[in-house]
Amino acid sequence: LVKYITSYKNHDAFLAPCLPSNPWETDHDAYWTLNMRRVEVPTKMRVERWSFSLFELLTDLRGRDDFKIFLKKEFSGENLAFWEAAEELKWGTASSMSAKAETIFKTFLAPGAPRWINIDGRTMGLTVKGLDHPHRYVLEAAQTHVFMLMKKDTFFRYLKSPTYKETQKKALNPEAHNFSSAQLEENARNRSTGIHPIILWQQEEEEKAKAAAAAAPVDVKAVMSKIDRKK
């Protein structure tokens, strides 16, 4: 508990000031803007938090993107890709579960799979058998195994890598805002409604869907069929 508090005390808004200012106290939203989910340049406090644990790194989408860059350079991104696929299955819609489970099997678990993951035989056997009747947590054992592999090896190599050090170097260290009473009153009058995290997530999913659609091969027959119907 002491170790945890020592690590996180400067990241707790009740124990330490937010930089550049606490939006709940000042009605100024710079803190939110600097800490958006996939901001291009993160803050130093945010990058520091990634070093606390692999869980912190993967929970932060910006940190996960940075970790992917490192794994790509090492040609070892299949474990993280599987972990993400397991998360999508866990939190996705019930209607898409069977299709996602089949894709995961063909991509990561089947003999000769393009991104085959190295897990022990017992876990592999239980996972493959469970995929005959997929449910949200059918990949839990395999996902935990892969997470522990990354935690024991890849995570610590990432923290020592040029990728992480370069991100640390570029990270922002915002100056503290010092608002007068009159400015705080002005901020309160100009207060704007923030965007709900769920709406932000929906916007990101829409952007990803558009990008995937743009990258997908064009079905010429379907396009010609639509043109014919319009005529």
TrEMBL record:
Database matches in PROSITE patterns: RGS
The species this protein was found in: Xenotaenia resolanae
Annotated ranges, domain RGS: 53-168
Family annotation (InterPro entries): GGL_sf, RGS, RGS6/7/9/11, RGS_sf, RGS_subdomain_2
Keywords, alphabetical: Signal transduction inhibitor
Organism taxonomic ancestry: Eukaryota, Metazoa, Chordata, Craniata, Vertebrata
Protein name per UniProt: RGS domain-containing protein
UniProt signal peptide: none
